[in-house]
Amino acid sequence: MKADGNDAAFLSAGAPDLGNPKAVQAKTLNNWQAEGTIELLGHVDGLPTLLWTDDVVVLQSAYAEGVPRILLEAAPSILAIVTTDMLGCREIVEHVVNGLVVSTRDTKGLAGAVKVLLERSDSRARVGEAERQKVLSEFDEDKGMKRI
To answer: Which end of the chain is more exposed for a tag (fewer CB within 10 A), N or C?
Structure first.
């Protein structure tokens, strides 16, 4: 995206999953940071505060992870979400309705989806609000406990 002239800042919160052989290696992450591709934040206390400063949340995942917490945390901030077509992710995000979903390992598709949302604030706002409504109606803890 930066090669295309996009000046977006990319932040990565959380520690690398060093025990996962499929995860991006720490050396690669450090190289990306040195190049200015991303800023590695490490563990972040107060993630909701950080989310209020962002425009888009991206979760690229190639394995089923249940319902990803970051997607649930992003929704109240009315953030547009780009994620991959994996079990758990697609339970939260329905393509075009309340975010964008791309195929796993499709880096060009992922970058294209992020670019669309960065360039179209109207789309960001629409899918962000739809995401917020979905999470509040379907994943609210109090409502879930009442159902149980």
So the answer is: C
pLDDT (tens, 9 = 90+) of the chain, 148 residues, equals: 777 788 889 999 988 887 888 888 889 999 999 998 899 999 998 888 889 888 999 999 887 778 998 999 998 889 999 999 999 999 999 999 999 999 998 999 999 999 999 999 999 999 999 999 999 888 877 766 677 6
The conformational region for residue 42 under phi > 0 = left, psi -120 to 50 = alpha, else beta, is: left
Total-model pTM:
0.88
Domains of the chain: 8-44 (no CATH), 45-147 (3.40.50.2000)
